[in-house]
Write a structure and sequence with these properties.
The protein is globular, with a radius of gyration of 14 Å. A five-stranded antiparallel sheet has the order 1-2-3-5-4, with helices on one face. Helices cover 37% and strands 32% of the residues. The protein is built from four helices and five strands. The site of adenosine-5'-diphosphate has 23 residues, from helix 2 and helix 4.
């Protein structure tokens, strides 16, 4: 059973907000003794997905959760926006596809870096992305 030890919620309206969420993710990962690889992975994924909320979603929220399953610690991050949604989800997840002429590697990279990755998106309604990263066990 997974329990939530602590939660931190953030608005994402500006580039500064993205930096703040990224910093908190790193701090929590280090505080929970995730190894340097897992720490870098969650920090990078949180940064990419927060930026997507800002750039593609028109702003929204991030929720960071410290988790324990009784043996290991983990981090969950949930990103929500009420933006346009992701019309071409398959393409967006496969990588190298961008509607803003940037690298198009944020979603695919984050998926690869996370232990769990779930997307719910509806065109015209918004997007929710949930990731988890656990201590290597
Ligand atoms: N929160 C979001 N809301 C709407 N569209 C999104 C969102 N996140 C990603 N997308 C879409 O998926 C594409 C790929 O995202 P990503 O892999 O991060 O690359 P990039 O941000 O460089 O475009 C984006 O160009 C955009 O069309
Ligand atoms: Mg991106």
């Amino acid at each position: 059973m997974i329990s939530v030890i602590a939660q931190y919620s953030f608005p994402i309206r500006t580039e500064d907000d993205v930096v703040i969420v990224r910093r908190k993710a790193r701090q929590v990962a280090q505080g929970r003794r995730l190894d340097p690889f897992a720490t870098a992975a969650i920090t990078t994924a949180v940064s990419e997905l927060s930026r997507n909320v800002l750039v593609h979603g028109g702003g929204g929220t991030a929720l960071l959760e410290e988790l324990s399953d009784g043996t290991r610690y983990g981090i969950r991050a949930i990103f929500e926006d009420q933006g346009p949604g992701i019309a071409q989800l398959e393409r967006a997840l496969s990588g190298g596809y961008s509607t803003t002429k940037t690298m198009g590697l944020g979603l695919s990279g984050s998926k690869r870096l996370a232990d769990r990755f779930d997307v719910t998106t509806e065109v015209g309604k918004g997007t929710t992305i949930r990731i988890e990263k656990w201590q290597p066990g």
